[in-house]
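Appendix B, Record 12. Input sequence as logged:
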Amino acid sequence: MCETLGTEPVESEMPVEFSNLPLEAQQALEIYSFLPDRWEGMSGTFLGKDYSIVFNLFDTFNIEHSDTRQLLLKFMAKVDSVRSEIITQKQKAREQKPSS
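Logged structural output:
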């Protein structure tokens, strides 16, 4: 795209490649993707991920060290929090959008 526009790429504007993330971040995101979403049935509110199987996933992915598990849980909780905020904002925007 930069070549077409005749500009130089700006590193701060380039998307991060999954493979460039630290191993722990890659592991956390991969495990997070296997966790099922929890939704409130009546209102359709996103409640976050269901962590009931997370330790089984740690075992499956051979993540044994307790400090690593703790770090991954913290990272996944942060991802879950940010994702929840984004979903909530999108739901509010949809609700405020006038119907045609």
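Residues 22-87 form one domain.
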